[in-house]
Amino acid sequence: MELNTEGGEMNIFRTVIPTAALAVSLGAAPLATAHAWNGHHSHHGHRNHCSTTAKLLNNACAKDIKDDFWLTMANCSNIADRDERENCRSTADEERQEAKEECRDIYEARREACDLLGEERYNPVVNPAMFVDPTEIGKSIAPNPFFDLTTGYTRVYESGDETITVTVTGETIEIMGVTCIVVRDIVAEDGEVVEDTIDWHAQDIHGNVWYFGEIVENYQDGLLNNLDGSFKAGDNFALPGIIMYANPMEGDAYREEWALAEAEDIAEVVSATASESTSAVSCDGTCLQTKNYTPLEPGVVEYKFYAPGIGFIVEVKPGEDGEPDERVEIVDFYHAM
Question: What are residue 33's DSSP bridge partners?
Answer without folding.
Answer: none
